[in-house]
Design a protein that fits this description.
mainly alpha, about 220 residues
């Protein structure tokens, strides 16, 4: 095992642990329906429909987040800059946690975690994959290969640019879900996600400027 591989193992295990804990917490929550999820007769509300924004967003954003975590792990091993590594660590933990929550909700609703339905159909404009980019904002396979090959400042700038585009599209998806979802879980998560990603976009713009680069 190479030194880089050994160094990445703690974060890999940390990300996996966060994901597992998030799923367990969601499942524990849904087996004890809250007052908000029951009617006067005590019956639990129906799960959101297969075609709902809730289900579509949970599926699509889980995939979107998965790539953000992947890119964050890549930059973590390609720079010694503490500010970039700290941002990467925050993305790994936050987005792995959120992904676990969304997959847990899909499980609790009895909805499959993947589907043959077109990506972004729930937003009214389905998309098709291009060079491995499954949705708006997602990096292509070519761009990911460039990030894997880069080191130091070159890798930092490429990562910050790719993640800025990734966050912009993610924030747009989150705002759409916050406005059209029927469950409090998705509405609240999506609204908070949009705010957080917009804040990180501003942070990354500053970090790019410090490196003499533009988004």
């Amino acid at each position: 095992m190479t030194p880089a591989a050994r160094a990445s193992r703690p974060l890999v295990w940390a990300g996996a642990a966060v994901f597992a804990v998030a799923v367990v917490l969601v499942l524990l929550t849904v087996v004890r329906p809250s007052a908000a999820s029951t009617s006067g007769s005590g019956a639990t509300e129906a799960a959101p429909a297969e075609s709902s924004a809730d289900v579509g967003f949970a599926r699509d954003m889980s995939v979107h987040h998965q790539q953000a975590v992947e890119m964050a792990f890549l930059i973590r091993d390609r720079t010694t800059d503490e500010s970039v590594r700290r941002l990467a660590y925050d993305i790994i933990n936050t987005q792995a946690n959120q992904r676990g929550m969304m997959l847990g909700w899909l499980e609790s609703w009895g909805r499959p975690k993947s589907s043959d339905r077109p990506r972004m159909e729930w937003m009214g404009h389905p998309v098709t994959a291009s060079d491995g980019s499954l949705m708006p904002g997602m990096a292509t396979d070519t761009e990911l290969d460039e990030l894997r090959a880069a080191k130091g400042r070159e890798a930092e700038v490429l990562f910050l640019r790719l993640m800025t585009v990734h966050h912009r599209a993610g924030a747009e998806m989150a705002r759409a879900a916050a406005g059209s979802a029927v469950t409090d879980e998705i509405r609240d998560l999506a609204a908070g996600m949009a705010r957080a990603q917009e804040s990180e976009i501003s942070l990354m713009a500053d970090m790019l400027e410090e490196r003499g680069a533009t988004p």
